[in-house]
Design brief:
By secondary structure, the protein is mainly α. The protein has 4 domains: 106 residues; 61 residues, no CATH class; 94 residues, no CATH class; 117 residues, no CATH class. The strands form 2 sheets. Strands 1-4 form a two-stranded antiparallel sheet.
Length: 409
């Protein structure tokens, strides 16, 4: 193939210049000779890149790996050659303090930062553009090198203009790419549509809430980058996001809001993050040992693992309404009669003994009722509850019945 015959001499020329600049005492070169060497190696690398891309485009599946290996080898040689020549051109003589740092730089070479790939969608354009401009476009690398990196990072199947036989120089290709994808109107429509089309979740789990949270954060960040005033959209975005949440989470959010105030978007996102954390699951493993004195030997019980909900209520925070108070001081809860309190705890899946999330009354390590010494909270004891909401007059000596079907028991 013609491309193969053209690529081989370019590789030889690059290696020849590399060996020459390593072996020579560049101090004897003047500035013009050094710049000429730099231009020469850059032109050979540009010829290598052009023919290499044509060969990769027409290569069989089993041949691609060999081409990529060759690319890495030639790219490293070219980079080293440019570094040597550029240092010589500047003529900078490091001082004693900088000399120590320079010697360390010669001893090792850091791994290059990976450039994210671009799949040709408006949704991923902004993230790719920011990274590519920082790592490649705004640097002083030669144009041929930048073009090679751009073709590596952009899929030619998704964006044919980058992988065509002749697509112009780097500046032309980058300008064409930005003209097509750096479109504020299309970017705004894409990310607003992503917000509006979040899939509603029926599962009240940490994973589903975090998926909604991440989508909202990513879309808002992109809209901020293109200059839209998202901080003023609370009244629009909050109802849209809330409508995508599971029913239980919607109810908890509405109970935490003031009835006459427009809720803030930041407050909703903070609520989602905290609730997702409280719904996350953990594996609790324990082992138990028992002494078999009657048989004269010890037996070790098998280890068991169970999934338990992480307790949602922090100290000083109501597990029922998420307000800044303990559950035992919750005015909403205390205003209920006995039956309403029991139903509220069932719906919120709270322990009947300590009024917290994460375990049943049987597993609760807290103490017993102060009035009847049974396994339930004193606020649920019939000895102190009357039929009046929140009343505390003795009416009967029967303890609160524990519903066997309730998951906490």
């Amino acid at each position: 193939m013609a491309e193969l015959r053209l690529r081989a001499p370019a590789i030889k020329a690059i290696k020849r210049i590399y060996e020459r600049v390593q072996a020579s005492k560049l101090g004897s070169y003047d500035e013009f000779q050094l710049e000429q060497e730099l231009k020469l190696v850059s032109s050979h690398f540009a010829r290598f890149v052009a023919n290499h891309e044509l060969l990769v485009a027409s290569a069989e599946k089993g041949e691609v790996e060999a081409h990529e290996t060759l690319w890495v080898e030639v790219e490293d040689i070219y980079n080293d050659t440019c570094c040597i020549l550029n240092r010589a051109i500047t003529g900078a003589k490091p001082n004693v303090q900088a000399g120590r740092q320079h010697s360390h730089e010669c001893e090792f070479r850091l791994e290059p930062l990976a450039i994210p790939t671009f799949d040709g969608t408006m949704q991923t354009w902004l993230a790719f553009k920011d990274a590519f401009e920082l790592l490649v476009h705004n640097t002083e690398y030669p144009e041929a090198y930048k073009l090679g990196k751009l073709r590596q990072a952009v899929s030619s199947h998704a964006v044919p203009l980058v992988g065509s036989v002749y697509s112009g120089g780097y500046g032309e290709v980058w300008s064409a790419l930005k003209e097509r994808f750096d479109n504020k109107k299309q970017l705004a429509e894409t990310h607003v549509s992503r917000l509006l089309n979040i899939k509603p979740s029926s599962e009240d789990s940490s994973e589903s809430l975090l998926a909604i949270f991440d989508t909202v954060q990513e879309s808002l960040r992109s809209l901020r980058v293109i200059g839209l005033p998202v901080v003023e959209w609370d009244a629009i975005l909050v109802p849209i996001i809330v409508s995508k949440l599971p029913t239980v989470t919607q109810r908890e959010w509405n109970m935490s809001c003031l009835p006459t105030e427009i809720p803030k978007l930041d407050e909703l996102l903070s609520f989602l993050s905290q609730r997702a954390h409280s719904l996350s699951t953990a594996i609790v493993t324990w082992s138990s040992r028992t002494d078999a004195t009657s048989r004269g030997q010890q037996r070790t019980s098998s280890q068991r693992t169970v999934k338990s909900h992480v307790a949602a209520a922090e100290d000083g925070k109501c597990a029922y309404c998420q307000g800044p108070h303990r559950t035992t001081k919750c005015t909403r809860f205390l205003a209920m009669n006995h039956e309403e309190r029991v139903n509220a705890l069932k719906a919120a899946r709270l322990c009947f003994n300590c009024l917290k999330l994460g375990h049943s009354a049987k597993q609760c390590p807290s103490g017993l009722c102060r009035h009847c010494n049974r396994k339930h909270n004193s606020l649920l004891c019939r000895e102190t509850l009357s039929t009046n909401a929140g009343g505390l007059t003795a009416t009967t000596t029967q303890p609160v019945p524990m519903n066997k079907d309730h998951p906490s028991d």
